[in-house]
Design goal:
Blueprint (H helix, E strand, L loop, with lengths): L2 E2 L4 H13 L14 H10 L12 H20 L1 H4 L1 E10 L5 H7 L4 E5 L11 E10 L1 H16 L22 E4 L16 E12 L6 E5 L4 E6 L6 E5 L3 E2 L8 H14 L1 H5 L3 E13 L4 E9 L2 E9 L5 H14 L2 H7 L9
Parallel strand pairs: 1-5, 2-7, 5-13
Antiparallel strand pairs: 2-4, 3-4, 6-9, 6-10, 6-11, 7-8, 8-9, 12-13
Helix pairs in contact: 1-6, 1-9, 3-9
């Protein structure tokens, strides 16, 4: 039984991984829609660590916890291969911060502690430190791709979809996983009006002396410094959170602002000369009310098909994507069990 998984790399590969690791699919082609170019950019610039900023609903809290456990295992067992590593992290807020989410995550974050008021910088009202998981996004996606292809025999194809129904290109396809990110706002058959872009811009710099994460969250800005694992000293400096802005261009004025803010936030950034390697802009696939993980029954050419939506993670694709994939696959457990005996198990 083929399952078709069109869409965004982070959630898409997560869904494929969950299917193949459970031995429930052997052929899972993937497709790319009109917004693919913008979403590839996200792989290069995205905030690649688990943080406390995004998503405070019950779903997001659950997905974050599963993501932390999953990335922890990768960091412990195959850190270099998967480009995931433990990194000390500090997060600061100009207000009281998302206390409910912080309380929830404090139950499992390694070495979590609340910073004393005396140690906070001017203008900062609250801060915490903990051990986070940082991910070299482009290399981690390559790792997942090659593991799925080489170890599990997953086949990937690139297609342009006219509608979500066209993902069911085989009579034997019973399940479509919709992981199309921002395209879910316009793709016929989905066209979710709750989808919107959140623009960001970052700098990729050479700064091997920077070894820790630090983030500061303000009312109208977000500043962060994130070392990139396995990159010989490259660091991500950011950033911006521009809700509803769909412009993928980069701007010199924003680059200057990022450099100024990160130097003020992290003295290590200006201790030695920092070489700016590139500027990236990308669009986070946001959604009002949070990410959508939901099952829907549709008809394609008179045949019943099951469509599982898995999109709208915003800036949390790497920390929530695994949990979203687990729940997406669980939604079709009945179909997978019905057809499991028809799936060749030898290759898995």
């Amino acid at each position: 039984m083929p399952a078709f998984v069109p869409g965004k790399a982070k959630t898409k590969v997560g869904a494929i991984s969950k299917l193949t690791y459970e031995g429930k699919a052997t052929w899972i082609p993937t497709a790319f829609v009109d917004s693919f170019r913008a979403e590839v950019v996200l792989l290069h610039y995205a905030k690649q660590e688990l943080n406390l900023l995004y998503g405070s609903n019950d779903n997001a809290l659950r997905w974050d916890r599963w993501g932390y456990a999953h990335l922890s295992q990768l960091a412990s067992e195959r850190s270099k291969e998967a480009y995931v590593q433990w990194t000390p992290s500090t997060e600061l807020w100009d207000d009281d911060g998302p206390r409910d989410k912080i309380q929830h995550m404090s139950e499992y974050l390694k070495d979590f502690r609340v910073l004393s008021d005396a140690g906070l910088s001017e203008g900062v009202k609250f801060g915490v430190s903990f051990m986070t998981l940082t991910v070299n996004a482009p290399e981690h996606i390559k790792y997942l791709y090659h593991r799925l292809q080489g170890q599990y025999g997953v086949r990937f194809s690139r297609q342009k979809l006219s509608c979500i129904e066209s993902a069911s290109d085989s009579p034997s396809t019973k399940i479509i996983f919709n992981c199309t990110g921002l395209a879910s706002g316009t793709l016929p058959g989905v066209a979710d009006p709750k989808c919107y872009p959140t623009r960001g811009q970052v700098l990729l710099v050479r700064a091997p002396h920077v070894k820790t994460n630090i983030m500061r969250h303000g009312a109208d800005y977000e500043t962060y410094v994130i070392p990139r694992p396995g990159s010989n000293g490259n660091v991500i400096l950011g950033g911006y959170m521009q809700k509803g802005v769909g412009d993928g261009s980069t701007y010199a004025s924003e680059a200057e602002s990022i450099l100024a803010r990160t130097r003020a936030l992290c003295p290590e950034v200006c201790q030695e000369e920092v070489e700016v390697l590139a500027a990236f802009a990308g669009l986070r696939p946001s959604r009002e009310g949070g990410a959508r993980v939901e099952r829907e029954e549709i008809l394609v050419g008179g045949r019943r098909r099951t469509l599982v939506h898995n999109y709208g993670a915003g800036g949390t694709g790497f920390q929530a994507g695994f949990g979203m994939a687990v729940e997406s696959v669980a939604l079709v457990k009945d179909i997978l069990e019905e057809t499991r005996r028809d799936v060749p198990q030898a290759r898995l």
